[in-house]
Amino acid sequence: MIKVTNLKKRFGDLVVLNGIDFEVKDGEVLSIIGPSGSGKSTLIRCLNFLERPEAGVIEIGGVRVDAEKCTNKEIRQLRLQTAMVFQNYNLFKNKTALQNVTESLIVVKKMPKKQAEELGMELLRQVGLEDKRDNYPATLSGGQQQRVSIARALALRPHAILLDEPTSSLDPELVSEVLQTIKKIAEMDTTMIIVTHEMDFARDVSDHVIFMADGNIVEQGPPAELLDNPRKERTKQFLRTFHANRKR
Amino acid sequence: MNFDPSYIIEILPRIIQYIPITLLMAVLAMILAIAVGLVLALARNSRNRLLSSGAAVYISFFRAIPMLVQLFLIYYGLPQLFPVFTKMDAVTAAVIGFGFKQAAFLAEIFRAAFLSVDKGQMEACITGGMTKLQAYRRIILPQAARNALPGTGNIFISLIKETSLAFTLGVVEIFAEAKMQAAESFRFFEAYLAVALIYWLLIIVYTYLQQKLENYLDRPYRT
């Protein structure tokens, strides 16, 4: 269970998150959509303190952190509850595909190397890249890199996986292989929060969708409701622009 | 023309005997410079104002003063303030002098190398649960090392050459030996040419080794 209460973040004078509240139940997939600059990436990056929120309470998998009074130890505890998939993959460039998956298992979880490699291979198989185990990231396509990074996230057996625009850097023809992989993992009851611009995918995979604009949650609900029958004018406007752009 | 090539052949073996002391000073000074340079680079990049400005002052000072002045300051100057330094031998003084000076240059090379590593790498580390120390050791440092290698190699080449200044403290290394041979035989050109060739050879060998290392570190990045 993930519970976020009154989360606030500003960059200088600019209010990026203006008191955000939401919940994600175990095994659920939450998609966050919204225009650029709406604060959705900042929101997901606040959940593991890559950005430090000014106020608010974040509770993930039984670890509760109050942004106004928290220690580095608490932050690290919170970080161990989630894993992240980045827009530009951020695979460790000096490590092979398999090493990328096993690195944290060995260094953080102190798992014996052999056991970590077995688990790593199993995860690479799950994302369809077992034959790339010894490839360095430089020799993989964007889609392959992102699939390795999903395997890396799964390896930690986190309470939830945070995906920050996982397909936004990809060539159009590589998007679907990554979306397929994410969908497969969602079907295994993995708790996920996905920031995305892929509306069809959000509709297909999520249990719940949040629409954000200007640092606020404008509207939230089941995907069919929010994406097909939005109640708020701001949501309608965003979806209209989105569909218009796609037809062009 | 008064030039006797056979004399070069004759004294080469005598000069070569002192290659170990030249290399010893260069390698020890390099190790010291890397250690101090690394600390300086991290301090310089730190958000702590005191650390960062302290490192900046160090770098500014040691980049500015001439090597010879610094060697004299350490070897002839320090014992006046602190008598314990009278026990310091000339090789130690030279190594400390070379090391502390080149650390200032290395610090700038390392700092740039750290900054050249994409900050997403650190984010991937800490979201994976690593501590910053683990992240530096396993991911950031190895990537920065590759970027720092060419510049670091230049520093080592400078160091090999600068060891010739140690003769001013009374250390007998290859240059001092050549100088003494020249004074004895009055064959200055041949003696200095011989030692020049030895420096050249040392640096050719080093350059070859560095190329090998660069190829090795480059493996993960070849497409």
Automatic annotation (TrEMBL), chain A:
Tell me the Pfam families matching this sequence. ABC_tran
Q: Which PROSITE patterns does the entry link to?
A: ABC_TRANSPORTER_1, ABC_TRANSPORTER_2
* Gene Ontology molecular function terms on file: ABC-type amino acid transporter activity; ATP binding; ATP hydrolysis activity
Name assigned to this protein: ABC-type polar amino acid transport system, ATPase component
Family annotation (CDD domains)? ABC_HisP_GlnQ
Q: Write down the PANTHER family for this protein, in alphabetical order.
A: AMINO ACID IMPORT ATP-BINDING PROTEIN, L-CYSTINE IMPORT ATP-BINDING PROTEIN TCYN
The record's Gene Ontology cellular component field reads: plasma membrane
Organism superkingdom: Bacteria
Its membrane topology is listed as: Peripheral membrane protein
UniProtKB/TrEMBL annotation, chain B:
Chief subcellular location equals membrane
Q: What does the UniProt keyword field contain? A: Amino-acid transport, Cell membrane, Membrane, Transmembrane, Transmembrane helix, Transport
Mode of membrane association: Multi-pass membrane protein
Keyword Cytoplasm appears in the UniProt entry: no
The highest taxon in the source lineage is: Bacteria
Q: Does the keyword Calcium apply?
A: no
Instruction: Kindly state one GO CC term assigned in the UniProt record.
Output: ATP-binding cassette (ABC) transporter complex
Where it sits in the cell: the answer is:
Cell membrane
Q: Name one GO molecular function term.
A: L-cystine transmembrane transporter activity
The record's SUPFAM superfamilies line, in alphabetical order, gives: MetI-like (SSF161098)
Q: Name one Pfam family in it.
A: BPD_transp_1
The ABC transmembrane type-1 domain sits at 19-210
Q: Tell me where the transmembrane regions lie.
A: 15-43, 55-78, 90-110, 189-209
Protein family per UniProt: Belongs to the binding-protein-dependent transport system permease family.
**Name the UniProt record assigns to this protein:** Amine acid ABC transporter, permease protein, 3-TM region, His/Glu/Gln/Arg/opine family
Species annotation? Thermobacillus composti (strain DSM 18247 / JCM 13945 / KWC4)
